[in-house]
Specification:
The chain is an alpha/beta fold and 236 residues long. The protein contains 8 helices and 8 strands. The protein binds 2-phosphoglycolic acid.
Length: 236
């Protein structure tokens, strides 16, 4: 059976207490299933408290950051080096379109961040916006996120968003796998862009798609639990 990744991208949201409340609700609901890999990516400010809460309760919830520095540790004011994050996280979302657009992040910068992540045993989850987006060497998971499909469900109402068509997303996933998959190494492709509990199974059911990156719908604990339940229903 293929891996099913469900990655929550909180973006710039949640105080520490809101983050801990979410973990206390979602953590106990995550089934222990080897093929189901649930990851939460909080802000830097709540990473350490979330890590403690997950560890104390031994929840099957892994942690990721939403970015990391393209530099090593040192005189880089405001940056979070991979070597400083590695005790807190196993994953890092890199090259998200919001960072490319708002922080002028280029493919070269993304590649540097990927190198820093890999050097510190952090698994990069590189976001690709189109078939042309390059995937840096060493990536084992990428998230296909067409820009026009991101956060369209701004009302927070499940089903309102304009996600990509699952079959079209599957075709793009296939193209990336042909370009970057075996024999160079395995590549899991996940989909992101207005995923919620009402549309997630459409993506999970696609043969080339191994999970989802969930932004807006991951903020609400109950909705995120529904996303997990829907995926598990399909996986088993
Ligand atoms: P969305 O965000 O689920 O709110 O569309 C996904 C993402 O930007 O990673």
């Amino acid at each position: 059976m293929k891996n099913i990744w469900i990655i929550a991208n909180w973006k710039s949201n949640k105080t520490i207490s809101e983050a801990l409340d979410w973990v206390s609700k979602v953590g106990p609901q995550i089934p222990r299933d080897d093929n189901l890999k649930v990851v939460v990516c909080p802000t830097f400010s709540s990473l350490s408290e979330v890590k403690k809460a997950v560890t104390v309760s031994n929840f099957p919830l892994m942690l990721g950051s939403q970015d990391l520095s393209p530099f090593t540790a040192g005189a880089y004011t405001g940056e979070e080096a991979a070597s400083l994050l590695k005790d807190l996280i196993s994953f890092s979302i890199l090259g998200h379109s919001e960072r490319r657009k708002n922080f002028a992040e280029t493919d070269e910068i993304v590649a540097k961040k990927v190198n820093e992540a890999l050097a510190n045993k952090i698994i990069p989850v590189v976001c690709v916006q189109s078939e042309e987006t390059p995937v840096p060497k060493g990536c084992s998971i990428i998230a296909y996120e067409p820009i026009w499909a991101i956060s369209t469900g701004l009302t927070n109402t499940p089903g309102v968003g304009r996600a990509d068509n699952p079959a079209d997303a599957n075709k793009v996933a296939q193209i990336f796998k042909q370009k970057y998959g075996p024999p160079a190494g395995g590549l899991d492709v996940i989909y992101g862009g207005s995923v919620d509990s009402t549309n997630v199974t459409g993506f999970i059911n696609q043969p080339e798609i191994s999970g989802v990156l969930v932004g807006n719908a991951s903020l609400d604990a109950m909705e995120f639990i529904e996303v997990i339940k829907e995926c598990l229903g399909e996986a088993n």
